[in-house]
Amino acid sequence: MAIISLLHGPNLNLLGTREPHVYGTDTLDDVVAVTRAAAAAAGFELESFQSNHEGALVDAIQAARGRSAAIIVNPGAFTHYAWSIHDALRSFDGPIVEVHLSNPNAREPWRHTSVVAPVATGSITGLGIHGYELAVAAVARRLAS
Ligand code: CA2
């Protein structure tokens, strides 16, 4: 069964514990469960990884090369400045969907730049946990075409 890698960046392990008005009340486990269910329904296995460390995420992206068919990634605040994640994603051959729970473009100016967007197939922002289900649908459609 083809694998989708689901990657989460810093502080997303705290989902559901603070700032529910921004990020909702779902926990990271809830996000992973919803994404895994969507992936299974589309015929994919989901591998999930969260880290607060930039290098660990670079390692996970490299490990996905030749193993995973697609990457769904919410890089957290690394979105806005982590060029090592940009470079690692560039080396991945399959579809890459960037997901954000909130809409960074509607927030502080420093969140308006994504260094991941230029190397992503597409980006889904502001739709909360539903964005992850849309991301699975998008990669499944891409991989089928
Ligand atoms: O909207 C998103 O998904 C973000 O990637 C979330 C990041 C933020 O830096 C990006 O600009 C947009 C922050 C994640 C922090 O999540 C927390 C959740 C609960 C409590 C504290 C932090």
Short description:
The chain is α/β, with parallel strands linked by helices and about 140 residues long.
CATH H-level superfamily title = Dehydroquinase, class II
Mean pLDDT: 97
Bound molecules: ligand CA2
Q: Which stretches of 5+ consecutive residues score pLDDT under 50?
A: none
Order of helices and strands: EHHEHEHEEH
| Span between termini | 17 Å
Main-sheet strand order equals 2-1-3-4-5
CATH topological fold name: Rossmann fold
Q: Give the helix level as a range of percent.
A: 25-40%
Oligomerization status of the protein chains? single chain
Q: What can you see in these coordinates?
A:
Strands 2-1-3-4-5 form a five-stranded parallel β-sheet, sandwiched between helices. The mean pLDDT is 97. Helix 4 links the parallel strand 3 and strand 4. The longest helix has 15 residues. Helix 2 runs parallel beside helix 5. It is of the alpha/beta class. The two termini are 17 Å apart. The protein has one domain: 3-Layer(aba) Sandwich (Rossmann fold). It has five helices and five strands. The structure holds ligand CA2. The site of ligand CA2 has 17 residues, from loops.
